[in-house]
Design goal:
Structural class of chain B: alpha/beta
Chains: A mainly alpha, B alpha/beta, C mainly alpha
Structural class of chain A: mainly alpha
Oligomer: heterotrimer
CATH class of chain A: Mainly Alpha
Number of domains of chain A: 1
Distance between the termini of chain B: 25 Å
Largest sheet of chain A: none
Mean pLDDT of chain B: 89
Largest interface: A-C, 45 and 52 residues
CATH superfamily of chain A: MetI-like
Radius of gyration of chain A: 23 Å
Low-confidence stretches of chain A: 1-16
Radius of gyration of chain B: 26 Å
Mean pLDDT of chain A: 89
Largest sheet of chain B: 8 strands, mixed
CATH architecture of chain A: Orthogonal Bundle
Number of helices of chain B: 20
Shape of chain A: elongated
Number of helices of chain A: 12
Chain lengths: 297, 601, 305
């Protein structure tokens, strides 16, 4: 920021510009938001928008190149995979899986992490010590290894992936919420609410919660991106979401043996994945700058 | 020839709301061995002036001037590299916050010598360190050799400020710019630092530019004063003349606003209505006209003229000499002595200690914040609780509010023990007003909702009547109606404090604990709030426990005074008696410092 | 400092204990060890026999204490698959993964340090925007994907680097770039934020008022403060790379701990998996302690606390 807000202890400050308007002036947020909206629309409308059935195999049209290659055609804009399925249609249906995993995992992780963080930050003392130990333990565990081991044993499927990711990605929620709640609850307005006879429940819901919601949303968008990356890594190793589901990680794993023949099989799914995660991170950055200025995440 | 000669200095800041004219064409000069003080409230442009001289403004700032001649070099014509030889060379600066102005990870010796080594590349390190030791000695630092390898966090606030001053003098500057150097310090330390500065000024023939918000502080310390308002010097002249015979309406009101340590309780403070203007865009006419008690139609169009009176120069559209009487506000006794009733609060032998963040194995230090403190409050009286930072006065306040349970001792409120009452009954009896108007209101709720919350929690009044009760209380606290639906961010500091007071009073408590309620406010706003508190106390028959480090404010408001030192109440009694015939050595030292601070000369 | 270190040490030991217990439970609950030992063809009597001889019929806490006592003496059990002792097996793979982690962190720091400083002092200018955009994009790229792209570029098209296996230092170039590329944005963001915050402090204003050169202000006064949290983060990242190199080791067929872990998971060789998880956790905790020590050495407020 090259411009600073007017600060003076006793002149009427600049009227705070609405959050929404400030967000719309944040280039990263706008780009990320539009991108994310695009993915959501594609995912929701995949059945209507996809030019082909994402599961229809055909030996005669295997490994068609994308349209910009020498032998490409508009029928299969992004070509076909080793089973002759339309790549673009699979990519579109894959967005559905990616978003479902991202949203559900981040929600579960957020529920676990925020609960722990809020309790630790509000009650402090022994509660905080126990929860902090829990956070340290979680951080010390190699999450990916544990996730792989659990998936190997527990089997595969979208909801198991969500369960595993949700129960490993909560640490940042807990850390951020703990600090944020600690800061807020030491402020004088919480003191004033206590002095006014408010119960813990009322203080947490009415005084603390509205002031740490921003922190939650910021972490949520980052962790949704992390969930997409982690799910892709699991799929890439062959665990988690199983064929013939059009998961992007799985598509890259399937394309790996054809790296020399048709590198687009890996490149295109990777680009889609990257754009989605980028969108989520940009939205996160935007929310951070608008909702929680001055915080580091 | 003056050491510093500034003509028509202007500073513009680019902000999200437009260009802010922080300094609007000011001129002044300082001679060798002279102290010139720039006095003003926050946002008046005084600190920006100090920073602009050496081009140290924030990145969004731009300065312009006809000239800034320092020791016969015009700083406005120097490039960045040449300016660097001036910064810390001919001109040195010290700042307000000794806690944050020194780099926490570098040793004192390193920070003291690095400037000298940069400005005189040939200097041997040993020689630089010898000079540092020498200057630390002169600045009254004991065991100076031992300080060099120490780090800032190992020194007290006062000691750090001494180190800052010694550090500033390393290169033998001709001008010392001191930006609120004593504001963050306790009263006793403040007096010592001012004495030190004067001594050094004599020894080194220093010119000092002293920036402060506190008029009484510079009365005898500065030779000349410039009073700043809205980016301009509205009045300047010999210190004594400006303070005893002010000519500009602003200066007059400002002086009337400040509580006076020497005055007795009972009078009403002068006040300034409204708020300082936002200095955005094109500004015409006199900028004080919005708050001026003697404003006339001409003030909006004309540029204020430079006028002279005995010993002072001031800028005003009209000649306010003719309206002299109006500048001095009603000092007549406005509040009748109120009746003091039976005992309301009794705190007996209260002790509180904190464990310093202990893990499982270090059962190390505990801090005894309050040790066996006892005090009583009668219904309808104001007890002033005085003490320096860390004396335990805020902890004691939290115990009385029931927000903290004491290790030992008891608090009895209207005959019932605090331990026995539930939180609602307690809330109905005692309410707080805190210091920081920026953290005392939840930014996510409207003013109306904030003041209504206690009624909802306690179930007072019929739900349909609550809105009306809230409105009445806000009216009573002087908050304009159009702000009832606003969020705290849209309010000024003074307005926020009015909301905080309304919230405290809406549930009808008998005791209000005011913990430094005006310390974060400017003098002109402080007087509004103090007057409000006084009115409310009289009208509603309230009892106040009024906590402050500011002796003059306590003197102004309190019937009785208790003095706290290192967790103990060392003296208490009738206000006149404590202030005029203090018995405890600490109280005597405190009052002497405050007196010396104002009368140092 | 000693008190702080003591507290951290206690925490580290507690974390180690919890993790060892959790992994132990996971292994006991997720698979029947007797079946794993005897094979699927084993009869009911044979399994019962195995349970008795291996003490699998004792209470879980007794089994854990027994296992923990052995673990402390360096006996982490045997691989179901190769029947080798687990600890030497893992230690033989550790150098490859450790080298990879060190190189990746090296790449990350080499990118983040200059860019982070530049972005902070040119805040809001094009270099800042560029650095932040690059960081945002690279943070969104899965490391296995950047690994595959690197293989395509250097291994297939340019043919200058080996694409898989472990031969010499050149084998580490691409994996380290892929992982370092993923680590760098995290370090960059923290360093930039720290520098921006530090450059706005009062003590930087003091340093400027002393007439120090910009170079001195940035490198001596600002960086010394801003780098402290980055050190802690780098330690955390190092620990996470040890456990997170599974995918990249699979992509480049590097015979490190990650590959061993992945193979063992696929073969349900739980003693090995359990030992690796425990070892990675212990290294992670140790790295954090080390970071605290370094921070203590650089920050007098911690050192003398």
């Amino acid at each position: 920021m090259t411009e600073t807000q007017v600060t003076a202890t006793d002149s009427i400050g600049v009227r705070p510009v609405g959050l929404w308007r400030r967000a719309l002036r944040h280039p990263g947020f706008v780009v990320g938001g539009v991108l994310l909206l695009f993915f959501v629309l594609v995912a929701l409308g995949a059945d209507l928008l996809a030019p082909h059935d994402p599961y229809a195999q055909s030996l005669v049209r295997r490994l068609r190149p994308p349209v910009w290659s020498a032998n490409g055609s508009w029928t299969f804009i992004l070509g076909t995979d080793p089973f002759g399925r339309d790549y673009l249609s699979r990519l579109m249906h894959g967005a559905r899986i990616a978003l479902a995993v991202a949203f559900a995992s981040a929600l579960l992780a957020g529920a676990i992490g925020a609960t722990l963080g809020v309790l630790a930050g509000y009650f402090r003392g022994r509660v905080d010590q126990v929860i902090s130990l829990l956070i340290s333990t979680r951080l010390a565990l190699p999450a990916l290894l544990v996730a792989l081991a659990v998936l190997q044993v527990a089997g595969s499927g979208l909801w198991i992936v969500v369960l595993v990711l949700g129960s490993t990605l909560w640490d940042r929620f807990a850390v951020v919420m703990r600090t944020a709640v600690m800061q807020v609850s030491s402020l004088d307005y919480v003191m004033a609410a206590r002095a006014a006879g408010a119960s813990h429940g009322r203080i947490m819901t009415r005084e603390v919660a509205p002031n740490v919601l921003g922190h939650f949303l910021v972490v949520f968008s980052y962790e949704a991106g992390q969930a997409v990356l982690a799910a892709a890594a699991l799929s890439f190793l062959g665990l988690g979401i199983q064929a013939p589901q059009p998961s992007w990680g799985l598509m890259m794993a399937e394309g790996r043996s054809w790296l020399l023949v048709n590198p687009w099989l890996i490149a295109n799914a990777g680009v889609a994945l990257m754009l989605l995660v980028l969108a989520m991170n940009l939205v996160g950055d935007g929310l951070r700058d608008v909702l929680t200025p001055g915080e580091r995440f | 020839m003056p050491v510093l000669d500034v003509a028509d200095l202007r500073v513009d800041l680019r902000t999200t709301a437009g260009v802010l004219r922080a300094v609007r064409g000011i001129s002044f000069s300082i001679e060798r061995g002279e102290t010139f003080a720039l006095v003003g409230e926050s946002g008046s442009g005084k600190s920006m002036t100090a920073l602009a001289l050496l081009d140290l403004m924030p990145r969004n700032g731009r300065r312009q001037a006809e000239r800034i001649v320092l020791d016969s070099r015009d700083l406005i014509r120097l490039d960045e590299d040449e300016l660097r030889t001036v910064r810390g060379g001919t001109a040195a600066m010290i700042f307000q916050e000794p806690m944050t102005a020194l780099n926490p990870v570098l040793s004192i010796g390193d920070q003291m010598t690095e400037g000298l080594l940069e400005h005189r590349p040939g200097t041997a390190l040993g020689e630089a360190r010898r000079r540092a030791v020498d200057l630390l000695t002169r600045c009254g630092v004991a065991e100076p050799e031992r300080r060099l390898p120490q780090y800032p966090h190992e020194l007290s606030g006062g000691l750090r400020q001494r180190v800052m001053i010694a550090s500033a003098l390393m290169t033998g500057p001709k001008l010392l710019i001191a930006d609120e150097p004593t504001t963050a310090l306790d009263v006793t330390v403040q007096a010592q630092i001012l004495d030190l500065l004067r001594e050094l000024q004599r020894a080194f023939d220093l010119a000092i530019l002293f920036i402060t918000h506190d008029l009484s502080l510079v009365r005898r310390f500065a030779h000349r004063i410039g009073v700043m308002y809205a980016g301009e010097i509205v009045e300047s002249g010999v210190a004594e003349a400006v303070i005893t015979a002010p000519s500009h309406p602003y200066t007059r009101r400002l002086i009337a606003c400040a509580p006076d340590l020497a005055a007795k309780r009972g009078h009403r403070l002068g006040f300034l209505t409204g708020l300082p203007p936002r200095l955005l865009g094109v500004l015409d006419g006199c900028q004080f006209r919005f708050r001026c008690p003697v404003v006339q139609a001409a003030c909006a169009g004309a540029i204020p003229q430079q006028r002279t009176a005995t010993g002072v120069e001031y800028r005003c559209v009209q000649d306010p000499q003719g309206t002299a009487g109006q500048g001095v506000p009603e000092r007549a006794a406005a509040s009748s002595p109120h009746s003091v009733g039976e005992s309301l609060l009794q705190a007996r032998d209260v002790s509180v200690s904190y464990r310093l963040r202990g893990g499982l194995f270090d059962r190390s230090a505990t801090i005894q914040a309050v040790r066996g403190a006892s005090l009583t409050l009668a219904r309808g009286e104001v007890l002033g609780l005085v003490g320096e930072s860390g004396s335990g006065k805020s902890t004691l306040a939290r115990v009385i509010l029931g927000l903290e349970v004491p290790d030992e001792g008891s608090v009895t409120l209207a005959g019932t023990s605090m331990r026995a009452v539930d939180r609602r009954a307690r809330a109905r009896a005692v309410q707080p007003v805190f210091q920081d108007p920026y953290s005392s209101l939840n930014p996510r709720h409207t003013v109306g909702a904030i003041v209504r919350a206690p009624l909802d929690i306690l179930g007072l009044h019929q739900p349909k009547d609550r809105a009306r009760v809230v409105e009445q209380m806000l009216d009573r606290c002087g908050l304009p109606r159009h702000l009832f639906a606003s969020y705290p961010a849209q309010l000024s500091g003074g307005q926020r404090q009015r909301v905080a007071i309304a919230r405290a009073l809406v549930s009808g408590p008998s005791l209000v604990v005011c913990d430094e309620p005006t310390s974060a406010l400017d003098v002109s706003i402080q007087s509004q709030i103090l007057n409000l508190l006084q009115d409310l106390q009289r009208d509603l028959g309230l009892t106040y426990l009024f906590i402050s480090h500011n002796l003059a404010v306590v003197r102004h408001l309190a019937d009785r005074v208790a003095v706290m030192y290192r967790g103990e109440i060392v003296e208490s009694g009738d206000a006149d008696q404590v202030f005029e015939r203090p018995e405890h050595a600490y109280t005597q030292a405190l009052l002497a410092s405050a007196g010396r601070r104002e009368a140092s000369g | 400092m000693l008190a702080l270190l003591g507290r951290k040490l206690v925490e580290a030991i507690l974390v180690g204990l919890i993790i060892s217990f959790v992994t132990f439970l996971l292994v006991t609950w997720t698979g029947d060890l007797a079946i794993a030992l005897g094979g699927l063809g084993a009869s009911r009597e044979e399994l019962q026999q195995l349970r008795t001889t291996h003490g699998l019929d004792r209470p879980i806490l007794v089994q854990y204490l027994d296992w923990a006592a052995k673990a402390l003496s360096g006996d982490l059990g045997r691989s179901f698959f190769s029947k080798e002792d687990v600890l030497p097996l893992i230690l033989s793979r550790l150098p490859v993964t450790a080298t990879l982690a060190v190189c990746s962190i090296g790449v990350g720091i080499a990118l983040a340090l200059p860019l982070g400083i530049l972005a902070a002092i040119r805040q809001g200018r094009w270099i800042d925007h560029t650095a932040q955009s690059v960081a945002a994009v690279s943070q969104a790229m899965p490391s296995f994907w950047s690994g595959l792209l690197l293989i395509l570029l250097f291994g297939v098209n340019l043919q200058v680097l080996p694409i898989s296996g472990y031969e010499n230092w050149a084998s580490f170039v691409m994996p380290s770039l892929a992982l370092g590329w993923f680590v760098f944005p995290i370090l960059l963001r923290l360093l930039r934020a720290g520098m921006v915050e530090t450059l706005n402090t009062d003590y930087i204003r003091t340093a400027r008022a002393k007439g120090l050169s910009p170079r001195r202000i940035i490198l001596k006064h600002a960086l010394r403060n801003a780098v402290l949290p980055v050190i802690s983060l780098a330690a955390v990242q190092f620990g996470q790379l040890l456990g997170g190199s599974v995918v990249i080791e699979a992509v480049f067929a590097l015979p490190g701990v990650g590959q061993l872990a992945w193979n063992s998971i696929q073969r349900a060789d739980f003693p090995v998996v359990q030992a690796i998880v425990l070892l990675v956790a212990v290294i992670f905790v140790t790295m954090n302690l080390l970071a605290d020590l370094i921070n203590g050495a650089l920050d007098p407020r911690i050192r003398r606390a």
